[in-house]
Amino acid sequence: MLAPLTGTHVSRGRPLVEVWSHHLRTEPEPPSARLGSPLPPDAERLLLECLEKDPARRPQTAAELQDRTRACRSFRRLGP
């Protein structure tokens, strides 16, 4: 998910089993840290919520994600 935003994958490693291990156990680095520049806090918070390890802490439906994206002021500035 972060690759288009940061140019890197969420989980890094070699061999592939290391990537899987990170995916399961390691909290993702905030996109702003990977970019070395700040992102709008509401957008970064939503992105990290989508990457939560606990499924119950992620947006539960596409409609919920859409609503939460629309609620982000930073995303509204990008729209038509």
Key structural traits:
single chain; 80 residues; mainly alpha; Transferase(Phosphotransferase), domain 1
Write a short abstract of this structure:
With 80 residues, the chain is mostly helical.
Q: Can you describe this structure?
A:
The chain has helices spanning 3-6, 16-25, 31-35, 41-50, 62-71, 73-76. The chain is mostly helical. The chain has a single domain (3-76), classed as Orthogonal Bundle (Transferase(Phosphotransferase), domain 1), CATH 1.10.510. The model has no long low-confidence stretch (mean pLDDT 81). It has six helices and no strands.
Helical amount = 40-55%
Number of domains: 1
- Mind telling me the CATH class? Mainly Alpha
As a percent range, the share of strand residues is under 5%
Q: Supply the number of helical segments.
A: 6
**In CATH, what is the homologous superfamily?**
Transferase(Phosphotransferase) domain 1
CATH topology: Transferase(Phosphotransferase), domain 1
Decide which structural class fits the backbone.
mainly alpha
Q: Which of globular, elongated, flat, extended, rod-shaped describes the shape?
A: flat
Report the order of strands and helices. Answer: HHHHHH
| N/C terminus separation | 23 Å
Please state the average pLDDT score: 81
Q: Based on DSSP secondary structure assignment, what is the total number of beta strands? A: 0
Low-confidence stretches are: none
Rg measurement, Å: 14 Å
The CATH architecture is Orthogonal Bundle
